Predict the 3D structure of the following.
Amino acid sequence: MSIRLAERSNDAWIAALRGRGDADDAVGELSAYLHRVLGRALAGRLPAGLDLPELVQESLARIVASLPSFRGDSAFSTWAAGVALRVGFTALRRRSVRDRATDPFGAVERELSDLPAPASDRPDAVAARNDLHAALSRAIATRLTERQRLAVVAELRGVPTVEIADRLGTNPNALYKLTHDARVRLRRALLDAGFGADAIRAAAKESPPCR
């Protein structure tokens, strides 16, 4: 199934979404497009209670409200996809915060149990930060051992070192060695993916998108 949006000029999209011209058709086409974009990007990641149609509606509202900020530097579809993905990932992060408040290590285990392979054919180029997070998530999924994944993601999520070591049946010194080796693998993976030293340092300070 194609994930592309119907051909319209940027000006035509803006006019339609502001209620001029074929507004109903434009909204319907954009809704279907955002549903495909978010469905592909969030496949396997949506927890119970987080509804894809609601995310589509929130994305539509955000896009319409943000029309004055659209400068036309890129295709409307690229910009709209970026807005929708930010809405989707923000919703996932908020849900993760609520989960961690009650059971931080359990939330990490649930995330890793459903960790999917990232999609290789993203619909449009989006923000560089999303690209970096996608590469980091891919590296965590494919370059680390199971114990390294659990330790690194728990560490990124702020789970105390003592609790991580206890759950893994190890001690803090051995845990340090485990996570150090994991970070070396992740750095190598990001270098292989074409990211520079500055981007890698930024990734070390931020957690990847929730899965």
The chain has two domains: 1-102, 104-211. The longest helix spans residues 76-102. The chain has a mean pLDDT of 76.
